[in-house]
């Protein structure tokens, strides 16, 4: 948070926590054919993917993602490249990792990963999407639209909301992204990018309050 930015108050944190909880799917994890680590600013995606690989949940791990305005400085060689390097340090063998370095959005994450797997002779029937905690639902809705013949599970590093805020170190950015992801969950089905997801009234009200409070930098067209 910058010096000239007003402090985030308790009500805004409560609203953000409602949205945070909604974004998580709560899937029970089990072995799958492949996992896809979705690129982002959150290196925890790579760490948790490595943990799940070591637990024997999948034999093949795809990291997907190029760069975005929020990651270019942190991961100058691309999200997927840096995620792979981190996973290697955590014990995932290079032979188990495929890298898709070009995707610029969630739809491309899914489509380009599917193409990469096909080029490697792999046609999975089940896939685990590993993402930031607040991206589970959007990645699920996207994959179900674009990859309907594959059973999709979602997972993210298990963290409480307050702990995640501290780990990222920028409360405003995280809440902006929570709001932006929910907007996309609402709007993208209309554009054919994802399947529809029910949004409970209290979550929608919290989302609108956060927009009125100025958490808007990640909204479409912002």
UniProtKB/TrEMBL annotation:
It holds the Pfam family DUF218. One of its GO terms (cellular component) is plasma membrane. Residues 49-149 form the DUF218 domain. It comes from the Bacteria. InterPro entries: Cell_Envelope_Assoc, DUF218, Rossmann-like_a/b/a_fold. This is Uncharacterized SAM-binding protein YcdF (DUF218 family). It comes from Streptomyces nymphaeiformis.
């Amino acid at each position: 948070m910058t010096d000239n930015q007003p402090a985030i108050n308790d009500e805004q944190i409560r609203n953000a926590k409602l949205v945070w909880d909604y974004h998580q799917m709560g899937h029970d994890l089990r072995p799958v054919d492949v996992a896809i680590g979705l690129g982002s600013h959150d290196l925890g995606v790579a760490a948790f993917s490595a943990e799940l690989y070591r637990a024997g949940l999948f034999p093949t791990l795809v990291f997907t993602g190029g760069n975005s305005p929020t990651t270019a400085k942190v991961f100058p060689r691309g999200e997927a490249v840096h995620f792979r390097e981190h996973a290697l340090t955590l014990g995932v063998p290079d032979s188990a990792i495929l890298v898709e370095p070009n995707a610029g959005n969630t739809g491309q994450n899914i489509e380009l990963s599917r193409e990469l797997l096909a080029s490697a002779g792999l046609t999975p029937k089940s896939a685990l999407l590993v993402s930031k905690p607040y991206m589970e639902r959007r990645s699920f809705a996207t994959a179900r639209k674009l990859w309907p013949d594959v059973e999709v599970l979602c997972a993210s590093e298990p963290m409480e909301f307050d702990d995640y805020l501290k780990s990222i170190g920028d409360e405003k950015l995280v809440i902006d992204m929570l709001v932006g992801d929910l907007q996309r969950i609402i709007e993208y089905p209309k554009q054919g990018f994802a399947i529809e997801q029910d949004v409970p009234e209290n979550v929608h009200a919290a989302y609108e309050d956060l927009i009125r409070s100025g958490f808007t930098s990640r909204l479409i067209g912002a």
